[in-house]
Amino acid sequence: MAFTPMMKQYLQIKQNYQDAILFFRLGDFYEMFFDDALTASRELEITLTGREAGEAGRVPMCGVPYHAAGTYISRLTAKGFKVAVCDQIEEAGSGRGIVRREVTRVVTPGTVLEGLEDKRHNFLLAVAGADKEFGLAAADVTTGLLLATQLTGEKAAAMLLDEVARLEPAEVLLAGGNNGDKLAAAVQSRLRTAITTCDAAVFLPDGAGRMLDKHFGPAWAQRFGLHNRPLAVRAAGGLLAYLNRTQKNDLRQFGRIQVYSAGQYMMLDTAARRNLELTASLRDGSRWGTLLWVLDHTLTAMGGRLLKTWIERPLLVAAEINERLDAVAELAGDVFLRDALRRALNGVHDMERLAARVVYGTANARDLLALKGSLAALPAIKSLLAGGRAALFKRMCDEMDEMTDLYRLLQTALNEDPPVSVREGGLIRDGYHSEVDSLRMASRDGKKWLAGLEAAEKERTGIRSLKVGFNKVFGYYLEVTRANLELVPADYIRKQTLANVERFITPELKKLEETILGAEDRLVQLEYRLFTEIREQVAGQVRRIQRTAGAVACVDALYSLAEAAVKGNYVRPQVDDCDRLVVREGRHPVIEQVLARGEFVPNDVRLDDRERLIILTGPNMAGKSTYMRQVALLVLMAQAGSFIPAAQAQIGVVDRIFTRVGASDDLAAGQSTFMVEMSECQTIVSSATRRSLVIMDEVGRGTSTYDGISIARALVEYLVCRVGAKTLFSTHYHELTDLDCLPGVRNYTVKVQEQGEEVVFLRRVLPGRADRSYGIQVARLAGLPAGIVERAREILLALECRRESAENTAVVLETPDAARDGGVRDVPVTAGAVLTELASLNALDITPLEALNFIVRWHEMLTRGDENAVRECRADF
Ligand SMILES: Nc1ncnc2c1ncn2[C@@H]1O[C@H](COP(=O)(O)OP(=O)(O)OP(=O)(O)O)[C@@H](O)[C@H]1O
Ligand SMILES: [Mg+2]
């Protein structure tokens, strides 16, 4: 089949990018053909057309304007597609045949530059290794952040998946093959992300090492602390190889690898991060109602991203935590400092992403101006920090480079109000470059210059009628009438003789002409060239920009925590290495925000070497789950360096927070509700240490009562006797409260008050145990039909009776006929019915005689089992 030459070129290029949608530049459009066109028109909702492709006839086509391509590309990558961008790499018409085209960049979900959320990273992740040995590298091409770590040991696979879930990569890169497939399935069962498999060779030690040599130069292993982390090296090498292949760019924004180890931060597994709703709500995954939502008052995107990382990765070293707390304390205590900092930070743009765009060569003049504006804010921030006492301020102040040289360059070189496009001129400021100035003058003031020249020549020659003219053939000329010819000076060059006049040119006039004609064109080109030179100069300083941006981010995150502390009326926790967790009048940071002011009831907690494990009982809706999450959140906040909502707190650093909270299905991962519950418990008992904090909310409720009680009891015994972790254990199995015979186990309960039928929730957590769950009252509160509630009450009373007397209740447990018919009012005579009535009797409102009557009647009912007696009895009420 013969295709047109252009279509042949298309197909040839497409061959190498089978897994991507090819954006093929044709004039002012990027066009897509064949299946790509079908996919793109569907996904982007753009019109599908067709194009003659030669003998093949019309083939499907659709296209997007080149200047809007970025948005379309990011829409496609957001849906998990890859886009290969194929550009014309020579001017149209400059050669013979069709223009040369090449793929200049492959945009994948993990390498897209546009359309991203400001305050979160967009990671491309690479995983090397298998089984008990993994290397992991994560890159954010938009900021230049490059992380690597290595996970080994029995739990390596689980830790890897936790890290993947924490980083929430847009794309995961794996070596193909069996192991890769298994890993891909495991990752995909946990989060929605694009998986790219690539040649296993890039992850091999040799290839990876060479890649790092090439990118970072020699001695990278020592510089980044990678010498004894071969798997991290393999992951990082594979990652860079992929970036090289897709970005076709020098990737200068990745100046270093930040190597970290699992033991450096508080470990939070996926369950804990989810359950505590740190950055995404359980309900819909949004930010609203999360800890981050409460704490995020950052003013810059960089600060926002860093704060998110702090919350997801609390610290373990008390000194480091206190360093943050010192800074937060200083800011929280100084409204003027905070205010000045807010004003300064407000002027800072996303320097990290700007720098990356500069390196990529996609930054326009407005981006550079945004960078300039950010640089302008630095001196103020630095001087505020220099005046501060906190050590962290001093450090960040040292990290910050005002970059006055860059600022001056941008200030002198760039126009104040440049257009979006860098190919239309209007970028360079007057006075920066003499040629730009004269070109600009030429196009603006050309006429004036000619008039000036004309006047000067008149003066010089004394020819009063001399004038400057223009025609298409000769361009500008000086015209002299025949009468004045003898006055023409020697340097005039004759060009044309007409009847009455002669036309001349001079070198000066020709120079002027050159300047005027095409000045506009040349100006645009020169401005573009100068702009790219300036951009290149800025790109050369990317390291300085990133370092400074990092420091600004840190200051912004501290500012945010201080702001949250002031707004929320938080206190500074005392954080140290003691084995105690004592909080006075703690509050749940999120729930207290959602409730009306002052409505949240504060509670204490104490866990130390005497009180190790709290069994928390209390009615439904009393606030058990809230209390337990609150304790976990307060610890986490403190270790992230935040103040906490409490009156006072001492928090001994915990190594890990475990949560087993609520029932969640993970059907996709092939686990039932109860199975999930049990495997989470397995993780806890096998990984928790004495320094951990364990939250277990109603463990065992997903199975039959007796199984549940038995499992719960065995877990408590194990946790307190073998693990020794600080534990909060809530349950409705009131039988468990007798476990307080074990050393370290204490009973606490969330108090309620009974008022007749009603329960009043006091929300106070106090020593003691609950004996009832008031589940039926809560069911009634929830609006369950009265019939059902009544019936439940009867069944409950009967069950309780049975427990007491083990007789006389068989009748009630049989489903009554009436109930099957939908009505539950007419129940058979039962002990339960009598008790129900007794319960609903207002004892203070009846006379002793009436009371006696009731007793007699009930006695009769119970001994006779007489239905009618019950009815009579009811009628009396
Ligand atoms: N200390 C408190 N102050 C004010 N309101 C609270 C407090 N604690 C909890 N609440 C409110 O009570 C509601 C129920 O709390 P929670 O879910 O913790 O109860 P629970 O005891 O775990 O109930 P269940 O046994 O049904 O799981 C919360 O959604 C919250 O609105
Ligand atoms: Mg609960």
UniProtKB/TrEMBL annotation:
Q: Which UniProt keywords apply?
A: ATP-binding, DNA damage, DNA repair, DNA-binding, Nucleotide-binding
Question: Where is it found, in Gene Ontology cellular component terms?
Answer: cytosol
**Could you tell me the superkingdom of the organism this chain comes from?**
Bacteria
Q: Would you indicate the residue range of the signal peptide?
A: none
Every DNA mismatch repair proteins mutS family domain range? 692-708
**Care to name a GO molecular-function term for this sequence?**
damaged DNA binding
Q: Which Pfam families would you find in this protein's record?
A: MutS_I, MutS_II, MutS_III, MutS_IV, MutS_V
List, in alphabetical order, the GO biological process terms annotated in this UniProt record: mismatch repair
Q: Where, in this chain's numbering, is ATP bound?
A: 618-625
Matching InterPro entries: DNA_mismatch_repair_MutS, DNA_mismatch_repair_MutS-lik_N, DNA_mismatch_repair_MutS/MSH, DNA_mismatch_repair_MutS_C, DNA_mismatch_repair_MutS_clamp, DNA_mismatch_repair_MutS_core, DNA_mismatch_repair_MutS_N, DNA_mismatch_repair_MutS_sf
Q: Which HAMAP family match?
A: MutS (MF_00096)
Q: What does this protein do?
A: This protein is involved in the repair of mismatches in DNA. It is possible that it carries out the mismatch recognition step. This protein has a weak ATPase activity.
Family statement? Belongs to the DNA mismatch repair MutS family.
Q: Output this protein's name.
A: DNA mismatch repair protein MutS
Record organism: Desulfotomaculum copahuensis
Instruction: Name the gene.
Output: mutS
